Amino acid sequence: MAQTTLTPNLQRLALANVCLGQFLSALDSRSVNVALPTISLHFDASMAAVQWIPLAYQLTIVGLVLSMARLGDKLGRKGLYTLGFVMLGFGSAACGLSPYLWLIVCFRAIEGIGGALVLANGRAIASALYAREGRGRALGMMSMSFHLGYITGPSVGGFLVDTIGWRWIFFMNLPVALAAAMMAWKILPETVTEKRDYSIDPLGMITLLTTVVALILGLQQVAKSGFGLLPALAVVVSLISVSLLLYAERRNPAPLLDLSLFKVRLLTAGMLSHFFVSLSHTSTFFLLPFYLQGILHYTPTQVGLTVICFSLVIVCLAPIGGWLADRLGSRMLCTVITGNEMSPDGE
Fold it and tell me: Which are the contacts of 215, defined by CB distance < 8 A and separation ≥ 6?
C-alpha cells in the first residue's frame, strides 16, 4: 500500500474518527447501565446476574487493552482499529437480538474486544499523527469526546428504554460503528511504517486476562453466596496467575506490563488514588439506577438525566481544576477533594 500523504484536512478527519471511537466506547459502556433494571425484570434475573452485562464489557477491555496495543505495534494499527469498530457493531447488534441473558453477556465480551482494539490503537494513531505539534490539543479532544459519550449514554439510553425498548440501546451502536469503520479504512494512514519484530508476549496476555477475570469472578461469588469452594478456587487461580505474570514480566526483555514503571513513586501513588476513586464511582453508578427506578420509581429517562449530572460537573470543572493545579499544586487538591468524597460527611 502506498504511503498516504498527511495533509491538514486528512489529519483533522483522522482525529475526528479517533474521537468518534472514544465517544462510541464510552456511550456503549454507560447507556447499558440505565437499562439494567428493565433487563432484570425482562429476564426475571437477579442483580448479581445482570451485573455481568457491564462486567463482561469492562473486564474484557481491562484484560486485553495492553495486548491490543502491542498487536497494533506489531501488525499495524489501522487494520486492527477498523476491526474494532466492526466487532463493536456486530456485538451490539447480537446483544439486541439475543433471547437469553447469557448470550448477551457473551456478545458483550465480543464488544469488549472491539472496544479494546479501538481504545488502544485510537490513542496511538492520534499520538503518531500529531507527533510534531498539537498532540496536547488532540489528546484533549479525545478526552472530551470520551466524557461526552459518558454524558450522552445515560440520557439516550433512558429515552430509548422509555420509548422503543431496551434492545435499541444495542441496536443504536450498529450504524455508528459501521460508518466509523468505513471512515477509518478509507482515510486513516498506517502509522506503523516500520514493522519491527515486537514480541507479543502471549504469556503476559493470558496471565493478565486470567488474573482480572478470576479475581472479579471470585469477588462476585463471595458477594452472592459467601465464601465457599468456588470463590476460593477463583481467588487461588487469580493469585497463581498474577504470580506467573510478575515472574514472566521480570524476565521478558520486552514485557507487556513494564513493572519498572511502578518504581516511580508519584506514578504509583496517582494510579492507586485513581483506582480507589474509580471504584467508588463505578459501584455508585451500578447501584444508582436500581435505587432510582426500583425504590423512587423514576422512569428510565429520569434515571438517565440524573446519572449524567456527575459527568457534567467533570466536564465543566476539569479546566478550572487544571488551572488551580498549575497554581496550587495537584497534591493538595487531590488530597482535599478525595478525602471529602470518601468521608461520611462528604456523602
Answer: 234, 235, 238
Q: 25, 149 in Cβ contact below 8 A? A: yes
Quick: pLDDT tens for 7-24.
777 778 888 888 888 888
Nearest to 129 by CA among 247, 33, 17: 17
Q: Which amino acid is at 243?
A: S
Q: How far is CA 297 from the centre of its chain?
A: 29
Is the pTM here over 0.90, yes or no? no
Cβ neighbours for 272, distance < 8 A, ≥ 6 positions apart: none
Asked if pLDDT for residue 345 goes beyond 80, the answer is: no
CB distance 113 to 59 below 8 Å: no
C-alpha 121/C-alpha 81 separation (Å) is 6
Question: Per the structure block, which three cell numbers stand in for 277?
Answer: 476513586
DSSP annotation string for 116-160? HHHHHHHHHHHHHHTSSS-HHHHHHHHHHHHHHHHHHHHHHHHHH
Q: For the chain, what are the domain ranges? A: 8-201+252-346, 202-251
- The set of cell numbers assigned to 227 is 465464601
Residue 240, pLDDT > 80, answer: yes
CA–CA gap between residue 347 and residue 341 (Å, rounded)? 7
Superfamily of domain 8-201+252-346: MFS general substrate transporter like domains (1.20.1250.20)
Distance CA 211, CA 315 (A): 33
Residue holding cell 490539543?
A: 137
- Helix, strand, coil abundance in the chain, percent, nearest 5: 85, 0, 15
Copy the grid coordinates of residue 193. Answer: 511504517
pLDDT confidence of 325, banded at 50, 70, 90?
low
- Give, as one character, the DSSP assignment of residue 100: S
